[in-house]
Structure formats: C-alpha cells, structure tokens
Amino acid sequence: MKKIFNIILSLLIVAVVTIASIPIINAAPQSVTINRESDVMRSYIGSKYNWAKERTEDGKVAYCLDVDKDWPGVNVKATLTGEADAGIVYILSNGYPYKSIVGNNDQDRFITQAAVWWYLADKGEGKLSEDFTTNGSDLYNLRPHIKKLVNDAKNAKASANPTLNVDVKNSDMSLSEDGKYFISESVTPSLTGTSAYEVKVTGAPSGTIVTNTSGKTQNSFKKGEAFQVRIPSNALGKTTTIKVNVTAIGATSKAYIYKPSANNMQRLVVLYQENTDLSKTISFTAKVDKPKVCVDYVIVGDVRPDPDLTDPTPGTSCYDKGTKYNQEKELTTRQENCKFDGWYTNEDLTGKWTDGTALNKDMTLYGAWDCGTTVTVPNTAATLPLIILGVGLVIIAGGVAIVVYRDKKLNAKK
Length: 414
Description:
- The protein has three domains: 27-154, no CATH class; 163-254 and 272-286, Immunoglobulins (Immunoglobulin-like); 292-370, Listeria-Bacteroides repeat domain (Immunoglobulin-like), CATH 2.60.40.4270.
- The chain is built from seven helices and 20 strands.
- It is elongated, with a radius of gyration of 42 Å.
- The longest helix is centred in the last third of the chain and has 34 residues, at 380-413.
- By secondary structure, the protein is an alpha+beta fold.
C-alpha cells in the first residue's frame, strides 16, 4: 500500500508541476533575459547620448528607463515589477519597431528611446541636459520628432478594453424578390481594439449561409464591413429563429517594467500585446406566413443514380400545407439499365406514394430502383460433343467394373 501511495503521490506532483508550467497565453513573463545587440546606438543629438541596444530573449526591443544609471550588462536577468503608464505605452506603440517615424530604423529607435527619457524627465523622473533638449547639435533634425512623440504621449489615455457590440434593429428576415431566400438586415458590428471579426450560424436549416451585402458567401469580415444571413425559403416549413455568433479577438498593448538585480543598472520597459476573446450572439427569425410541410428524399439500397443521367434530387422541399403533391412532376430520375420503381412512404418500400395526395405533415419519401436480374445461360450447342463423350466414358467405366466383378466371383467358386 505504501508503494502504491508513493506512486500516486508522484503522479500528482508531476501533474501539478505540469499544470503550473503551462504558459498563460499573452501574459507578460515574470522575468526576462536582456541581451545586448552587437552595435551601440550612436548619439544623434549632442555627443554623450549613445546607449546599448537591448532585446529580450524572445526578440522584443527593450528600452531603458533610468537615464542616469548604467546600461544593463550582457545576458542580464530582470524581474517584472509592474506596468508603465499610458504615456510610455503610447511612445512604444508609435515608435520603433511598430511604427516608422523618419524611415530609418536606427534613427527611429533613437527617437523612441529619447522620447521615453524625455517624457519621464518632464514628469520629474530623471533629467536630460539642455545639450540634449535645446543646444546640442541635431544634424538629422530628430529633435522635433522626439518632442511630438512626447507631447502626444502626455495626452494619451489608458487603453480601453477591447469591445464588440452587435446592434440588430430588425430581427425579422425578409423574403427575397425571387422568393428563394429569407434575408436578414445588414449588420455592421462595432469594434474597438480589433480590426476583424467572424460570423457563424448555429441551429439553422441546411443551406443557410453568411454573406456580404452583395450576396457572396463570406464568414470573415474587416472592421466596418457588414454581413447578412440567408436561409433557403424551400428549407423552411414553419417560422424559424436562428442563432448567429459574432466573434473577434481584441488586443490591448501594455508596457511592462523589468528590473535587473543590480541597483546601478537601468530598468527596462517592453511592449506586450494581450489578446481577449470577444463574442456576441444575436437572433434572426424567418416568418412563414402559411403553414408548410416538408418532404425529404432518400434513395434506398446500394444502387445510386448515375450523376450524368440523373436529374438533381432535392434533399428537402417545403410546400404549403394541403398542397396536392404530384411527385412525378417535381422529380424525374433516370439511370442506365435500371428502372426507377417510384417513391414509397416507408423505408421497407411499402406504401407507394400516390400523386395528387395532399401534404398535411412533414414526411420522407424513399426511392427504389429495379435493375432487374441477369441470368447467364451456357452455350449448350458448343459443349454437346463434350457432354456425349463424358456420358460415354461413364458407361464404359461402368461396364468394365461389372466385368471385373464377375471374373472375381467366378475365380472364387473354383
């Protein structure tokens, strides 16, 4: 028992460790390893604002926060300490590598780092010299871009959570002019924090489709695009309500701060994107004015119509209740070398359907094929001599056997 207990305990420990080791999707890591790139950022403004280019082990660009401290060393472990404010999120989201500012990656990266330091200095966190902010040489005219990024960051607000709203003004579907479809109104979901959405229908009759406003089948849409739902009118026997699921993945950018263990090293900030599943369910109703009944068609047996010879067989067709239904006018079915034996009301091919019978309830008609029975008759004219020869050999063999038997008896009497 002790051995079994130890085995069970070991399995539980493994399970707990495994579950604990599963990464939380889109969550920032609790610690990162900061890696230096081979080259150092040159000082595009003044002469002393060069700095090390840093990245996390997963390749994300990391920016320094404490201008007065040392650059982080090589392969430095840093621990998550919190989130930066909306201004830092704005700078990182609108700087390198996510946005192009002047069209030069190295200069865009310098602008982004300088904006982080400048923004924090204006908040009283660190200090930049006048050489950098005002007097220093700016050969590439980068200072105006830095100022703009900082000023815009000061007005930035915290990112709202992603949202998905679907407003349906009229849930009743209308019949198309040709009478083939019930069509919903055009619906344009309202999205924030995402640029696309998808639409799926559940519990709908066969043949129901999601389309764009031109009637083309489509399930994935961009923000601002509208969708419709279409139900084949001949698939509805009664007023039907369907569910439509609208889904999207919203994204929120967050700037996480990481601190090396050495206090003389700068903290770093990294931009991560967190995803949120968004979903809304709406309903549409197709109202059938007159009560209808539906007929399903099923072919019984292994024989199937030849596609080249068979008229299309509808899976389901619906008609006004009480319609005198003439099946033969609705469907003709042909197959080479076979005869279609008609439609029956039972799967065992009993109760043959009679044209002109009124439809008062949903039903299934079962189709039967009669392909006949082919019997192979041998060519007796060609085999007659062989038959005669065979009979003769049997007679001769019998005669020989009789003679041998008589000789044996006679010899025994002597």
